[in-house]
Amino acid sequence: MRRLDQLLANLGYCSRREARDWVEDGRVTVAGKPARDSGAKVDPASVLVDGQPLDHPDGLLLLVHKPLGLVCSHDDREGPSVYTLLPARWQRRNPVVTSIGRLDKDTSGLILLTDQSPLVHRLTSPKHKVPKLYRATLSAPVAPAQQAELAALFAAGTLLLTGEREPCAPAQLTFRDATTAELTLTEGRYHQVRRMFAERGHEVVALHRERFGDLALADLPAGQWRELPLDTFGPL
Question: Which residues form the domain of 43?
Fold first, then answer.
């Protein structure tokens, strides 16, 4: 049971003060009857606003195809945000909808958004080793012998990035062609894919995340999302 005014505010409908006005205006019903007290404890499943059930009262989990040029940040100073792709109500939710890990503005592809902090912690924790598949486009062709050397180096878990004290975890590298590689990581260091290739003199000119765990973008267009069950990764 949750306070009605707090429930509406946390789901992004209105402020707690505005909730009182909505109740007085008859816009809110509880168990089929007009709400009388905005401070009453209610079952979210019994609440209707303007005749409609509450919007995801238990939480959100979204798979988003992030376009280039958007950041995964709530700080407007960093530039246009991936959160602007979402409906305004979802942007006002509390707890706030946030990304599970980040993709920088020059990286496109699959990003998960949620307002469930336990899920964020679980999927970003190094101990869970969630695999993430990236497609990297390189600025120059890589010869077959060099491809094999890179794959062996990345798989060995001995590559030490500049400025780091611990080597990268083992990663799987395969080449689609001389300038296109697929890299699967189980950790998420700052600009890790670009830095790993740069350590051996290869520049990544385009980067796209194709998979997160067992999830894939499939044919989801850039800038769009699809909703996922909250238990996609098991019980919260």
Answer: 2-53
Q: Is 226 contained in some domain?
A: no
pTM for the whole structure: 0.94
77 is a domain residue: yes
Instruction: Based on DSSP, count helices (H) and strands (E) in the chain, helices before strands.
Output: 6, 15
The one catalytic residue among 75, 76, 104, 115? 104
What is residue 97's predicted lDDT score, i.e. its pLDDT?
A: 98
104 is catalytic: yes
Considering the domain architecture, whether residues 136 and 116 belong to the same structural domain is answered as: no
Compute the Cα dihedral for 108, 114, 115, 118 and give only its sign.
negative
Mapped onto helix, strand or coil, the DSSP state of residue 135 is: strand
Q: What is the pLDDT of residues 170-206, one digit of tens each?
A: 999 999 999 999 999 999 999 999 999 999 999 999 9
The pairing of strands 204-212 and 107-114 is parallel
